[in-house]
Amino acid sequence: MVQATSLSASRLASLVEGFDRSPAYAGLADALRELIGDGRIGYGTRLPSERDLTEALGVSRTTVTRAYAVLRESAYAEARQGSGTFTRLPGGRTRALDRALWPSDVGNGVIDLVCAAATAPPGIAAVYAEAAADLPAHLGGHGYFPAGMPDLQAAIAATYDARGLPTAPEQVIVTPGALAATAVVGAALAGPRDKVLVESPTYPNAVRALQAGGGRIAAIPLDPSGWDLDAVAAALGRHAPRLVHVMPDFHNPTGLVLDDDERAAYAGLLRRHGATAVVDEAHQLLALDDSPGHPPFASYASDAVCVGSASKSVWGGLRMGWIRAPHALVDRLTRARVGLDLGVPVLEQLVLTRLLEGDLDSVVRTQRERLREQRDALAAALTRRLPDWTFRMPAGGMALWCRLPVAAATSLSVEAERHGVLLAPGPSFAPEGGLDRYVRIPYAVATPLLVEAVDRIADAWAVVGAGGAPATGGAAPVLVA
After folding, report:
1. How many of the other CB atoms lie within 10 Å of CB of 113?
2. Taking residues 226-254, what's their average pLDDT?
3. Cα–Cα 20 to 30 A to 421, which of 140, 298, 310, 459?
């Protein structure tokens, strides 16, 4: 049994210093809720006794007693007889965070705003039919292609050539999705003694995938306005990581983009510290505005390993991803890949080959047009119904990263479920906890549903964020795609 972490009264007093004292019990409870929600006080931490905290704060015992009672009533703490008061989160840590990795079927009018994946664009069924007609020619073979079918490897390599990154077909390893590709990289390149740096916030499924080889995760805080390269340099020096996970193009969940100078500087830091970049390019094709593109991160970091996917730009049901690796790592990655699976279904590979050799641009253009319209509609609805929320309009990707006026995203996700909307709160994207002031809202569903969802979220926020009692009970199971 793991022993609970304890927090001293003096430390807690320093954390809540300056809390609102009119009335003092409510101000103390609000300060504690924000600290717990942001992760600055960890889940399951034993809080100081009422007597000790009373002395440390110089307040009455009644103030602390009532503040702890508010925490318990709002599901931010629980009392354990004979042991004390321990922090928790509405819905519990497991449902608030861990189940963010699992898919869920929704119905009965529930709007799912946790899965950032669009429906298939027009014409995909026809491509599948054409690929099925090609299938008989391959039935005489064993059907196993651990690195991918040669024609598909060549077609993927050509996309990197077109972006200014010369790539040979043998540098490409085809996988069943970007997550599988990330897991292969984690298994091949980061062992149990190796550190793996990830951004915070970040895509939580990628964090799990990178740990396939036992690597230990550490986080680099990502500023809402962009990458702090000084902080990156400090983290590299402190952790000496083997791998660094980077999302330079329409970062998930923030939508941020690294500019050319930042890419060059970031790559230089990695070289200086002997770290290998794992470059997640799953959203790279989803530019929604007429902004200039950027060279691939690997143009600046020759030893970088790139991970790509067709699931975001085409359709999530097309489970196709790939690794683009430097020649020196291909054999090592291929051996690790065989330890996980022996290849992607032949039909899926034929479909993607046809798309890449055909008119992929028109398919992606259709997705971009739809996402642009839905992004703008979501932003307008949020501005109208929730004017005290703030967000940065992303130039691409699939979601808005919204900052709340108070740290209540976890409570909001619970209350929103009661209003028929599934939301992914900020802590789902925080590898080391925190970010309860943020919520990710994808714009992957149709505009009318987005507008209806914002109306429901606004009603939920009126309960949680505008002075009402925070929600309690089970949080929605969420898939963070």
Report:
1. 29
2. 96
3. 310
